[in-house]
């Protein structure tokens, strides 16, 4: 019977004890449904019945899962089942990929049957060949299953299968830079395990794959960072790797353009995703459990189990490096864990080091421990990555002195020997690490490590030579960084006092209830904080302030406040407090606090009623309230709530001076009617709700069930930012578990808009003062960003996404600033990832939010959000602009309303930034086709806004042709007060553009179309400028405009009426008025005396009416009479002279050059009309006679 039960699962190896898995039941049900549908049918009939069945979404999912189970359980039918799966699937195989990732490959791969494992690899290979979306996630999960330090046949087969699959599908692989980097990192790591001769064939395949990717895709591999160098060191003796090393050191440019060499790689911190890919999910769960659930002193049996399971062979010793790097780079405990009795990271790392049986593996483990020290930078690296190294040495001084000395010796010797050419950089990195450790109060003093009396004399000399600035005979670290009293060596090590070591529980003779197990750091002052910033989550985990376990007085934590209060000649009560011993501190971090409170409460309460003593009471109560804040521990405060409440009532019974309020605010205490005690960690500003807001909040809360209501109430009371983020994540999880309807979303949005009011504070900018990955991570710590993070993490077709979108949309209606905060999160998160690969997908979330809002116009939606941003945070607006213009070009480029919004808030520095971005080609705010509309609307803007617009126009290289269409509408009057009716900004900038142009017929016609105003010098100015530089060309252009008029003909409807219209809507009156203005204002007599201009004036005069001749008589007076005209005047009277002039005019018309050929763009009607004009040319004599008699 037992044997039968163990074989009931088609996919998983089960036992009598465990039985079938829940997920197995689901897969069996889906498989049986598939079999029932297709049993006894032909292929065609089966296809028809499946196509009908998949119309139901639930049946579609079951059929896809059933086909997947058929592929995995029956190799003989796998090909047919895969073809059916590709035919019937309607979700791009998303359901299959999710099942592989979440239930088969990640969680239960180790429990699959051997044949099933082979079929999983076969199925993934087929999915890769088909280019299925999301299969890259399955491949990444399979890479995790290649365990390091495992040379069993199963692991070797898996490594070879994945290597072959990736080499065969190289084109697919090159599409995913993350998979390229993860592949290189994984196979470089397991190459170290495959050095035996029997693995020669596999090793050659792996080397070929890795070297090809490194040389051809080195830019994608650079994201690995410094751990790429560490892995290359371990396999440097392989010939191909050795050749790569030579290029890396001596010819880095051949690997990637602009790659400077090893220093860039070593300065890049390795992302946690690469540490995760080298541990199987089972290992990861166990290490996480050990560091987050197991109490310190109780970890031995878990370590023994882990040792038996994963570290029981000589080859598995290399796995220890992976574990150490994972613990350092991935496991960053929260405040709550750091202040608890959970096994600390340094204890687990100490166990891995002390139990290692291979000398080579031990040396590699030491390098893994200190690897982040070598090129540490306070700006780009994380204190949590160097904290375990110093704490392992510090806490091993007494129980494991040999471990401390070997680690210290390794740290000294690695500086000159890691890379001799970079020894100075390595020493700088190590020294920076030590300074950072002391500044952050990871340990109180470094002297016990460097001046240990048990240290070997040779090692002591080496330490003093390597770190002279930290040794006691020089400027000590204590003098430079530690203001408090030094801690005696006998009380430094917590494990020694407790009788503990890395592998056993409490065994010392003195172990008992008086041993404090919750202090991971020997001493942390009130300003100590660990920055837990990483590119994936950007969270910050400050360390709670604990009382040092020493026999000395602990009043140093109060010095900052007492120093400030001493200016007022007060008598701080902290100078009279009793000392606190280690035994007292063991009872909890509140011991010192309760002693302080007792001292306050035992004083006569007449101070509160005695006005003359109020200042003393203010100082003492403030001092002690600060002590409460500097030694806060939320759990212990709750257990002593009665005593705290009595003291708070004392504090609130008297007025607090402004100076004290300022001091208390700086030290983490908020005054809001009463003294508020804030729990440990970074806190948000206290913002009490008004009665109306509280009533509104209660109305929202009453609509929710217990769990949601409890989380919202906790969020209302919680002040710690990290804890608030956790609560909001739990709220998101509830939303995912139970989809929200519209009414629930509105109530939840109403509650969150009140509870997250501090996240919408506009007093400080969201954008850091100094923008870097680290500062951007810090700016993303507000709880509101938890909503956005969850929104971006869900796929577009995930049904849970709609509920969250509905919530964010409802929240935006109540808090309009939500929109631009989402834009900031998307942009900042992309910056912290140092890649733009997923930006387009991320900005799609913003587009979905627009759709959820119900607005029709995305452009208006963007402008509305940016309008709010411009009012709240103008600096952020300019930072967001390039990303918006890049990802929404259709809705932003050429948007006049958006441009005006930006220019309204722009300052000179921001204008310079935008101009630089435009010149770099990364920003396009408008183009030639859209600038005309913007210019037209800008005529009513403020002068400074128009000035900024023209600066941007120059950066965009907008040609003057785009400005000519508005030229005739621009007004200007010199020396006028009515500035609102003129457009000097636009005219001045157009003039500056025209002066850089050579005159052309088109430009000249647009200028001549402007109405002549004697007080407007615009046209005359540019005409004079061109005349001075292009005299002959200007004369010819004017002559062409005059002579290229439509020819006179009976067929023309407009024949010399009022002077007629010249070419392209330039009338004769417009031409003559501007020429006359040029003559009068600019004195260009020489220009008018040119023969070409004389011909032009003569032709224009012949076309004028009598009134026009009289109006422009002064201009025509510049015409010089020819000899023929003079003789005509002497021999004939007025009528004959008139006839002669008509004949002369006709003769000139006869000598006129032929009409120029019209461009092809002109209408056929005009072309035919021109032909009609040419045909009756022979009959002009008759017409001329008629005109002559009419004239007589």
Automatic annotation (TrEMBL):
<protein>
    <recommendedName>
        <fullName>SOSS complex subunit A homolog</fullName>
    </recommendedName>
</protein>
<keyword id="KW-0539">Nucleus</keyword>
<dbReference type="Pfam" id="PF24566">
    <property type="entry name" value="HEAT_Ints3_C"/>
</dbReference>
<comment type="similarity">
    <text>Belongs to the Integrator subunit 3 family.</text>
</comment>
<feature type="region of interest" description="Disordered">
    <location>
        <begin position="1121"/>
        <end position="1192"/>
    </location>
</feature>
<keyword id="KW-0963">Cytoplasm</keyword>
<feature type="region of interest" description="Disordered">
    <location>
        <begin position="1041"/>
        <end position="1063"/>
    </location>
</feature>
<feature type="domain" description="Integrator complex subunit 3 N-terminal">
    <location>
        <begin position="58"/>
        <end position="464"/>
    </location>
</feature>
<dbReference type="GO" id="GO:0005634">
    <property type="term" value="C:nucleus"/>
</dbReference>
<dbReference type="Pfam" id="PF10189">
    <property type="entry name" value="Ints3_N"/>
</dbReference>
<feature type="domain" description="Ints3-like C-terminal">
    <location>
        <begin position="713"/>
        <end position="1118"/>
    </location>
</feature>
<dbReference type="InterPro" id="IPR056518">
    <property type="entry name" value="HEAT_Ints3_C"/>
</dbReference>
<dbReference type="InterPro" id="IPR019333">
    <property type="entry name" value="INTS3_N"/>
</dbReference>
<feature type="compositionally biased region" description="Acidic residues">
    <location>
        <begin position="1162"/>
        <end position="1171"/>
    </location>
</feature>
<dbReference type="InterPro" id="IPR045334">
    <property type="entry name" value="INTS3"/>
</dbReference>
<comment type="function">
    <text>Component of the integrator complex, a multiprotein complex that terminates RNA polymerase II (Pol II) transcription in the promoter-proximal region of genes. The integrator complex provides a quality checkpoint during transcription elongation by driving premature transcription termination of transcripts that are unfavorably configured for transcriptional elongation: the complex terminates transcription by (1) catalyzing dephosphorylation of the C-terminal domain (CTD) of Pol II subunit Polr2A/Rbp1 and Spt5, and (2) degrading the exiting nascent RNA transcript via endonuclease activity.</text>
</comment>
<feature type="compositionally biased region" description="Polar residues">
    <location>
        <begin position="1133"/>
        <end position="1145"/>
    </location>
</feature>
<feature type="compositionally biased region" description="Basic residues">
    <location>
        <begin position="1146"/>
        <end position="1157"/>
    </location>
</feature>
<dbReference type="GO" id="GO:0005737">
    <property type="term" value="C:cytoplasm"/>
</dbReference>
<feature type="compositionally biased region" description="Basic and acidic residues">
    <location>
        <begin position="1123"/>
        <end position="1132"/>
    </location>
</feature>
């Amino acid at each position: 019977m037992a044997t039968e039960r163990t074989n009931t699962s088609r996919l998983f190896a089960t036992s009598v004890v465990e039985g079938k898995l829940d997920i197995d039941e689901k897969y069996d049900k889906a498989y049986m449904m598939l079999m029932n549908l297709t049993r006894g049918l032909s292929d065609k009939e089966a296809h028809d019945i499946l196509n009908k069945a998949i119309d139901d979404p639930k049946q579609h999912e079951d059929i896809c899962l059933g086909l997947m189970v058929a592929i995995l359980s029956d190799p003989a039918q796998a090909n047919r089942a895969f073809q059916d799966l590709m035919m019937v699937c309607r979700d791009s195989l998303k359901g299959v990929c999710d099942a592989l990732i979440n239930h088969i490959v990640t969680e239960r791969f180790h429990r699959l049957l051997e044949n099933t494992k082979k079929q999983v690899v076969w199925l993934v290979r087929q999915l890769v060949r088909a280019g299925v979306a999301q299969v890259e996630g399955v491949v990444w999960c399979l890479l995790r299953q290649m365990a390091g330090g495992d040379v069993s046949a199963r692991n070797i087969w898996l490594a070879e299968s994945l290597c072959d699959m990736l080499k065969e599908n190289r084109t697919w692989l090159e599409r995913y830079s993350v998979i390229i980097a993860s592949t290189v990192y994984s196979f470089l790591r397991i190459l170290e395990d495959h050095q035996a001769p029997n693995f020669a064939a596999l090793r050659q395949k792996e080397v070929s794959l890795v070297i090809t990717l490194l040389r051809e895709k080195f830019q994608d591999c650079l994201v690995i960072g410094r751990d790429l160098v560490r892995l290359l060191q371990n396999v440097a003796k392989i010939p191909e790797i050795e050749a790569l090393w030579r290029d890396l050191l001596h010819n880095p440019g051949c690997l990637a353009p602009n790659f400077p060499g090893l220093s860039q790689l070593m300065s890049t911190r390795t992302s946690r995703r690469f540490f995760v890919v080298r541990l199987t999910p089972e290992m990861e769960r166990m290490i996480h459990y050990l560091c987050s659930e197991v109490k310190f002193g109780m970890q031995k049996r878990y370590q023994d189990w882990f040792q038996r399971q994963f570290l029981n062979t000589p080859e598995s010793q290399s796995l220890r490096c992976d574990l150490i790097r994972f613990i350092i780079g991935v496991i960053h405990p929260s405040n709550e864990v750091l202040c608890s009795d959970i096994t600390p990271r340094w204890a687990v790392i100490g166990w891995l080091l002390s139990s290692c049986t291979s000398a080579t593996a031990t040396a590699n483990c030491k390098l893994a421990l200190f690897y982040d020290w070598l090129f540490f930078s306070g700006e780009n690296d994380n204190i949590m990555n160097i904290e375990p190294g110093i704490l392992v040495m510090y806490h091993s001084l007494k129980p494991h002195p040999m471990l401390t000395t070997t680690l210290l010796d390794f740290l000294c010797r690695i500086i000159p020997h890691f890379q001799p050419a970079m020894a100075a950089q390595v020493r700088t990195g190590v020294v920076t690490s030590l300074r950072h450790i002391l500044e952050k109060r990871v340990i109180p003093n470094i002297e016990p490590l460097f001046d240990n009396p048990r240290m070997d004399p040779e090692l002591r000399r080496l330490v003093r030579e390597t770190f002279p600035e930290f040794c006691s005979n020089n400027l000590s670290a204590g003098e430079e960084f530690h203001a408090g009293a030094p801690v005696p060596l006998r009380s430094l090590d917590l494990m020694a006092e407790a009788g503990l070591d890395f592998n056993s529980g409490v065994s010392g003779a003195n172990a008992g209830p008086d041993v404090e197990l919750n202090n991971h750091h020997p001493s942390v002052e009130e300003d100590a904080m660990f920055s837990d910033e990483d590119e994936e989550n950007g969270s910050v985990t400050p360390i709670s302030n604990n009382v040092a376990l020493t026999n000395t007085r602990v009043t140093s934590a109060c010095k900052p406040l007492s120093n400030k209060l001493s200016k007022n000649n007060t008598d701080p009560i902290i100078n009279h407090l009793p000392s606190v011993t280690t035994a007292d501190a063991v009872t909890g971090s509140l011991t010192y606090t309760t002693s302080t409170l007792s001292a306050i409460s035992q004083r006569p309460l007449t101070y509160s009623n005695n006005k003359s003593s109020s200042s003393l009471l203010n100082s003492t109560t403030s001092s002690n309230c600060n002590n409460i804040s500097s030694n806060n521990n939320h759990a212990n405060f709750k257990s002593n709530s009665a005593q705290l409440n009595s003291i708070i009532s004392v504090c609130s019974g008297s007025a607090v001076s402004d100076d004290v309020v300022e001091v208390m605010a700086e030290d983490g205490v908020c005054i809001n009617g009463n003294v508020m005690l804030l729990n440990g960690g970074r806190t948000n500003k206290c913002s009490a709700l008004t009665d109306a807001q509280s009533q509104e909040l209660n109305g929202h809360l009453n609509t929710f069930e217990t769990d949601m209501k409890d989380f919202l109430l906790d969020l209302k009371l919680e002040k710690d930012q990290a804890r608030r983020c956790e609560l909001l994540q739990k709220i998101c999880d509830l939303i995912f578990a139970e989809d929200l309807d519209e009414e629930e979303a509105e109530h939840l949005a109403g509650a969150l808009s009140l509870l997250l009011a501090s996240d919408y504070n506009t007093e400080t900018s969201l954008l850091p003062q100094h923008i870097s990955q680290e500062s951007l991570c810090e700016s993303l710590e507000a709880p509101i960003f938890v909503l956005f993070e969850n929104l971006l993490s869900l796929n577009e077709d995930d049904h849970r996404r709609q509920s969250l979108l509905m919530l964010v949309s409802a929240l935006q209606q109540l808090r309009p600033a939500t929109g631009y905060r989402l834009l900031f999160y998307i942009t900042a998160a992309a910056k912290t990832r140092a890649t733009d690969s997923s930006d387009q997908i991320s900005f799609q979330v913003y587009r979905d939010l627009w759709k959820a809002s119900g607005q029709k116009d995305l452009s208006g939606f963007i402008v509305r959000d940016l309008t709010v941003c411009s009012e709240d945070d103008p600096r952020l607006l300019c930072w967001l602009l390039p990303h918006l213009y890049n990802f929404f070009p259709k809705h932003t480029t050429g948007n006049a309303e958006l441009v005006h919004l930006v220019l309204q808030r722009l300052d000179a520095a921001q204008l310079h930034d935008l101009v630089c971005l435009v010149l770099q080609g990364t920003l396009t705010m408008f183009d030639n086709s859209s600038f005309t509309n913007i210019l037209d609307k800008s005529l009513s803007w403020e002068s400074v806004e128009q000035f900024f617009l023209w600066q941007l126009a120059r950066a965009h290289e907008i040609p003057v042709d785009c400005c000519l269409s508005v030229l005739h509408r621009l007004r200007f009057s010199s020396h006028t007060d009515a500035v609102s009716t003129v457009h000097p900004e636009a005219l001045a900038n157009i003039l500056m553009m025209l002066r850089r142009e050579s005159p052309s017929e088109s430009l000249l016609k647009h200028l001549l179309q402007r109405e002549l105003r004697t007080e407007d010098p615009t046209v005359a100015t540019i005409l004079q400028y061109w005349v001075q530089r292009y005299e002959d060309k200007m004369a010819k252009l004017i002559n062409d405009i005059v002579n290229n008029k439509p020819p006179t003909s009976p067929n023309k409807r407009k024949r010399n009426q009022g002077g007629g219209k010249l070419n392209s809507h330039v009338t004769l009156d417009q031409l003559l008025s501007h020429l006359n203005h040029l003559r009068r204002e600019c004195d260009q007599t020489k220009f008018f005396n040119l023969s070409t201009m004389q011909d032009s004036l003569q032709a224009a005069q012949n076309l004028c009416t009598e009134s026009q001749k009289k109006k422009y008589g002064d201009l025509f007076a510049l015409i010089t009479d020819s000899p023929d005209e003079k003789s005509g005047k002497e021999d004939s009277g007025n009528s004959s002279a008139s006839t002669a002039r008509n004949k002369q005019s006709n003769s000139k018309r006869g000598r006129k050059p032929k009409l120029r050929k019209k461009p092809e763009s002109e209408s056929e009607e005009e072309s035919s009309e021109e032909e009609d004009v040419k045909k009756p040319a022979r009959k002009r004599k008759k017409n001329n006679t008629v005109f002559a008699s009419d004239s007589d």
